[in-house]
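Pasting two entries for a bug report.
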Amino acid sequence: QMEIHFDDDSHYTLSYEFLRVHSPSAEVRGHGPGQETLQTGKRKVDILSVDPVGSYAIQPRFSDGHATGIYAWDYLHELGSRQEQRWQTYFTELREANASRLPAISVGQWNPKA
């Protein structure tokens, strides 16, 4: 989890999964309304590193290889203040897509001739 404190005395604890599925990157948000990509299987994602982007943002590198989201401080504040609502929307989208927060497990195919 990432704990963030702001100058207005607000502070939030955001899970890495939450940050990953709400990445502000074009890969996740698309280039316009209706182009969003539902992020699935991110339950166990970690953050490997965080780089500053000037004085206005951070850029985390996630364990699933995602590293293009630039999280401005005002976006992080908005994520924190609307965390419960955003989680509920995400859970609803997962249910409607019959998708899971858990990563897919690769299962080999049995070949009796091998």
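Entry 2 (this is the one that rendered wrong in the viewer):
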Amino acid sequence: MSENKTRNNDRFWKNLRGLGRWFVPGLGVKRWFLLVLLGITLLGVGLAIFLLDLYRTDSTNPILLTILSYASLRFLPRVLRVVVFAGLGIGLVAYGIWQLNRSLLRPYLRPGRAVVEDLENFRRRERGPRIVAIGGGHGLATLLRGLKAYTRNLTAVVTVADDGGSSGRLRESFGILPPGDIRNCLAALSNDEQMLTQLFQYRFSGAGNLDGHSFGNLFITALAEITGSFESAIAESGKVLSVGGRVLPSTLHNVKLVADMQLPHSLNQVRVEGESRIPQMQGRVQRVWLEPNDASAYPPVIRALLNADMIVVGPGSLYTSLLPNLLVHDLLGALRASRALKVYVSNIATQKGETDLYSCHDHVRVLEEHVGDRLFDVVLCNDNYTGKLLDDSQWVQVDEKSLADGRVRCADLADAGYPWRHDSKKLADVLMSILAERTAPLE
């Protein structure tokens, strides 16, 4: 019996604390609650005037006099009557508004989540910093999955040089920009990565023309046909997935990634065309560029970079995900002109055919050889080398040259289950702490 009483008391105080959370600053609720309370107060004053007038004019009627006396609690002291009526009024208003909200929002509530929790989370992320993430592949999706817990003001800038797999086939068949990396980012930014997101990421297998295609790629392609533009298709896909942010292509031009590669045991260089072919070649990448090399950036990307609080480049494939974005000349110009904090996130493990035996310093060196020196304010590297990597990978070590660079920051960023990947929460936590250090007022 005592356990039930304790449980009921705990539930009562928990509900009372939950009710108080509706009045914390920033939720945009108090103003409307006070407006409702004012309206009810005015209604109550009008009713009181009517009752007083009725009470005075019909004071000779003993039945009406008795009813009005009990209804107005006249048998209680005046101060106590005010307290009782005010308390009952406020309680009924609060309870009515609470139940009305529950009724209206019931179709949109998540099991086990209070409305006030979702509202607090939404308002907090709505006021979050403006962050632009540049890259492609699974690395960018991992980064976005962590950052979306802190802000809704997210812009993902994705390469459109992909020409392999499902994206390459759709690009060749329909003449659209490759949707694969964009699909991954939309899924990562979705507010609810459940059934709809799983459907968006579903990949067909078996015989036939659909083999290897993902549903999301086909969906974006269909929307591009319906809306008449690739950028409109991305926007509509974001609405379907309830995306907390934006995903933008770095350029709307049909660009191709080209590389000069040095063959093993030879001084000769070969030209390799196509993003998907570069990692497959037996050789070392010397230089990459875009054709055409004068492709203009997508204008919303320029605006996002110039208005950003922080710009994050990486993680992702050095030559085939990061550089294809940075090689868009006016995008690079906006990146340099931006006053945002610029962070490069180095990969945890090397990639076969691209960055074999590369250290963290080597990654930064290659980037700066292509786009110029001192582009980044911070270079973020992983220093957790525990766990087993894939057979064809090595750790991207923080060597002496890296440590000599004052921009380098080291942290444990590895996913415990997949140590060659970044942990989205660890990465986002470190990035937000770096941003907080920069924006903190000087003492």
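Dev reply: Rendering is fixed now. As a check, the viewer should reflect this: Residues 49 and 55 are 10 Å apart (CA to CA).
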